[in-house]
Amino acid sequence: QVQLVESGGGLVQAGGSLRLSCAASGGTFSSINMGWFRQPPGKGREFVAAISWSGGATHYADSVKGRFIISRDNARNTVVLQMSSLKPEDTAVYYCAGGVTSWRSILPNTYRYWGQGTQVTVSS
Asked: Is 45 helix (H, G, I), strand (E, B) or coil?
């Protein structure tokens, strides 16, 4: 069983940047495809970005492409979401997730492991 803990959320002005980190423990992190999802207020959970177990492949939602970068450090068991040019519509609880069979999947129910989430609020 893999445990995931997110950190780095907070309040930022539009146009600013934030760096979210996810620390993994309890499993073989280097063999697990990882992703980030978010849940805006009053809405469902939506895909943000994913990265393959090796870090060699990434996938982004169109809404964040060119602004967000997902990366991982298998030696430190961490995955990072670097967010820039933030917009008010990026406001959401952000979740780290892992254990999906295909890193191309954007469906939340295909991911086995989830963190508790971290709040990101972008003010206009």
From this structure: coil
Pairing, β 113-114 against β 92-100? antiparallel
pLDDT at 51 exceeding the cut of 90: yes
What pLDDT does 34 receive? 97
Surface-to-core class of residue 107, CB atoms within 10 Å of its CB (0-12 exposed, 13-18 middle, 19+ buried): exposed
Alpha-carbon dihedral of residues 115, 117, 50, 17, nearest 10 degrees?
-140
**Angstrom distances, CA of residue 47 to CA of 1, 75, 109, 120:** 22, 25, 11, 15
Tens-place pLDDT, residues 30-47: 999 999 999 999 999 999
Q: CA 29, CA 60: separation in Å to the nearest integer?
A: 21
What is the residue-averaged pLDDT of the chain?
96
Strand pairing report for 118-123 and 113-114: unpaired
In whole angstroms, give the CA distance from residue 24 to residue 12. Answer: 26
pLDDT of 75 above 90: yes
Write a three-state SS string for 52-76.
CCCCCCEEECCCCCCCEEEEEECCC
